[in-house]
Amino acid sequence: MRFFAALLIAHASFAAVTKDAVAIRKLLSDADVGLPVGAVAPEFKLKDQTGGERDFASLTGPHGLVLVFFRSADW
Amino acid sequence: MYCRRQLVQLQHDRPSLERAGFGLAAISYDSAAVLREFASRKSITFPLLADHQSNIIRAFDVANRRYPKGTLLDVNSEQITNSLGDVPVYGVAYPSVFVIDPKGKIVWRFVSETDELRLTGAAILERSVGAISSANRLSVTKGRVEVVVTASNSEAGLGNRLWLGLELKMPPGLHLYGPQAGGSYHGLDWTMDESSCWYQSEPDYPKPQLRHFPFEETELPVYQGEVRLNRELVLKPVLSAAEPSLFRLFQNVCLDSNSRVKASGTVSFQACDNRQCYPPQSVPVEWKFRFLPPDMQRASPELRREFEP
């Protein structure tokens, strides 16, 4: 019985959400933090997974660099 | 865990980024040892950079403001509990992307305060420089108009932000009315079916031309030649320690027998030339994505972050 009640609640929260266009717009929006377009990217020199030091010049391609910040590869 | 999936997907999309002339690197507050172990386990060959002191994360102003010094996070529930054994998260980055030109100037950026959502490499490429992926492309012709369905990716995991496209191609002399046309005109309209499996943004309609017709006093918004619409589609990030049944529900409801997620909708329009209008069309459109299951494996215990640098 408790299992079915939990499943019902899960079903409800699973089925909800999608219709609220304003909430979705906020969820998907570009946040008001971080350097803006037009700013000069800060210089960096960091170790990569092989232990080698990398800076912008060693990473960029002819048209530039896609630099991704992520939370963690551990958790 | 959403990050690990994103890194694998970036590795997958790396050839497209390189073909478009872009280098690829990813930064986190992890130690080089954590990155080495993960890269080796998942065969990641693009550079993962260890910003263990979060200096570069702060220089780009993307350190998560919800986590002040001393914050400990229960990584299963994603709640701040400050309990023994939880992970120090001061200095962790918001999921962010910066596209930097060869001279070092930022030319495109996206920072997400929503922790679970991640852009794919191909979506970054389409949204930043308009390089349209051919990974997931279908075409159908209705009422003399060719409708081409595109998507940034053909594979997707939970929380992935995919970039959908619809191209409508008209022969010379034909036009479609823009969504603003109103009245009895069947303006271009792209709707998505309701689903518990994904979120979607509103579509971007390009600016139509304004044209004068002898039968109407005011000018009418029209598209001619080719018009491309885009919208974002996000597979719901349903991993939840509090409600583990959500992921099972997602699997039961959203995946077909070949482990694919299908997203569907309708594009409606009416094509006209200078003499007549053809019957209004409603064309069903759909996208299929091979589902990439989440990677739940953490770093080895001895490598995990225990201190706040």
| Helix vs. strand class of chain A | alpha+beta
Q: How would a textbook summarize the main sheet of chain A? A: 2 strands, antiparallel
Largest interface by Cβ-Cβ < 8 Å:
A-B, 55 and 97 residues
> Oligomeric form of this entry?
heterodimer
Low-confidence stretches of chain A: 1-7
- Give the DSSP E fraction of chain B (strand runs of 2 or more residues): 25-35%
Order of helices and strands of chain A: HHEEHE
Q: Mean of the pLDDT scores of chain B?
A: 91
Average pLDDT level of chain A: 83
Overall 3D form of chain A:
extended
Count of domain modules of chain B: 2
Largest sheet of chain B: 6 strands, mixed
Q: What is the CATH third-level topology name of the largest domain in chain B?
A: Immunoglobulin-like
List keywords for this structure.
heterodimer; A: 75 residues; alpha+beta; 3 helices; 35% helix; B: 309 residues; Glutaredoxin; Immunoglobulin-like; 2 domains; six-stranded mixed β-sheet; 35% strand; elongated
In short:
The complex is a heterodimer of chains A (75) and B (309). Chain A is of the alpha+beta class. Chain A has helices at residues 2-15, 21-28, 56-59; strands at residues 45-47, 53-55, 64-69.
Topology of this structure?
The complex is a heterodimer of chains A (75) and B (309).
Chain A: H1 2-15, H2 21-28, E1 45-47, E2 53-55, H3 56-59, E3 64-69
Antiparallel strand pairs in A: 1-2
Chain B: H1 2-19, E1 22-28, H2 32-42, E2 48-50, H3 55-59, E3 72-74, E4 79-80, E5 87-88, E6 96-100, E7 106-111, E8 118-119, H4 121-129, E9 136-142, E10 145-151, E11 155-156, E12 160-169, E13 175-177, E14 189-192, E15 198-200, E16 209-211, E17 220-224, E18 226-235, H5 245-254, E19 260-269, E20 271-272, E21 281-291
Parallel strand pairs in B: 1-2, 8-12, 11-21
Antiparallel strand pairs in B: 3-4, 3-5, 6-7, 9-10, 10-12, 12-18, 13-17, 13-20, 14-19, 15-18, 16-17, 19-21
